[in-house]
Write a structure and sequence with these properties.
Blueprint lengths: L1 H47 L5 H12 L2 H5 L7 H25 L4 H47 L1
Amino acid sequence: MNRNTDTTQETLPLKQRLRLQLKLKIALITSLFSYITLLLVIAINQWVQPDGTIKYWILQSVPLLIFIPGIFFPKYVQRPFRTYSWMCFVILIYFIHYADKLSTDPGSIINWIAISLTLLLFNSAMMTSRWMQHFSLIDSQRDDSNQTENHNRDND
């Protein structure tokens, strides 16, 4: 009876882990897509605008480019979920910028696309950060339980 209960308890975290991996994968893909697309929209916007210059493009792109190590090379960052948390703060500035531009020019399609991408990136980065934290919590709990079992075996 006890053995059957242990098996049930082991499969439940596996199901949760698989569900969490799927959610994390979807959020990562959505974050990556909206991140790259927002950078492209910023570049296109500067190219199309009559007063657009390289200087403005650099000024708008650099705050987003700072997150490249955490997005594309997460194994080299100590806590990659913080990259996505900080990106949420920076994206709010872009949201305010494009909301202001839309208030003066509501017919601009590129500004509608940009504000939609900021909303998508904010939400996907927020969920990516959250699910990365949950994933690391599950891993740390599993490691703690393995260490406790090993410690108990050593004492027996």
